[in-house]
Design a protein that fits this description.
Radius of gyration: 17 Å
Shape: globular
Order of helices and strands: HHHHHHH
Length: 178
């Protein structure tokens, strides 16, 4: 099936921007800054500031889980065997930490007005990891699964400390509404 000329032109125009943004977010320091800025600015814009520290805790737990899993599994990146759009990173690939962080932010926002923004970000990050050839879809899916686990562990940690879990982030209650 061939796309109509205007649609094909639109996809052609977007391809360069998608590649540029994907390559930009591939750099860990750029991804960390963009993700942190997104969390702060979106939380302030939607009046969800109490969620920031909980989300940061969930992200930190997720990164620790993901880095431990990478160190344990030693899964080689797919770009070692098939050329990707960028130079192949030298570390291991399972799970995708970029996807884990982005999906953690989205999961924490489930049930809030800001959820569509975080979900869009997470889906773009997941797409870009596969698009660049540095991860497979199963590695991105592993990042999503670990994001759920990190959020649950963060909720357990916050509910058992003097911090007290903000009522806006009770995941179990929100998941019942889905």
């Amino acid at each position: 099936m061939q796309l109509p000329e205007p649609a094909a032109s639109a996809f052609g125009l977007a391809r360069g921007a998608v590649l540029w943004l994907s390559v930009f977010l591939n750099r860990p320091e750029a991804f960390a800054v963009v993700s942190a800025a997104l969390l702060v600015f979106v939380s302030i814009a939607f009046g969800e500031q109490r969620r920031i520290f909980f989300a940061a805790t969930a992200v930190a737990i997720g990164i620790l889980l993901g880095a431990g899993m990478k160190a344990f599994l030693h899964e080689e990146r797919p770009c070692l065997y098939a050329p990707g759009k960028i130079d192949c990173p030298l570390d291991f690939s399972l799970p995708s930490l970029h996807s884990l962080v982005a999906f953690t932010l989205a999961i924490v926002a489930v049930g809030s007005a800001s959820f569509p923004i975080y979900l869009s970000y997470a889906l773009f990050v997941a797409f870009s990891r596969v698009y660049l050839g540095v991860h497979t879809t199963s590695e991105v899916a592993a990042g999503l699964a670990l994001a759920f686990f990190a959020c649950v562990l963060s909720e357990l940690l916050w509910s058992r400390t003097k911090w007290g879990l903000p009522k806006e982030v009770r995941l179990r209650r929100k998941m019942d509404r889905l």
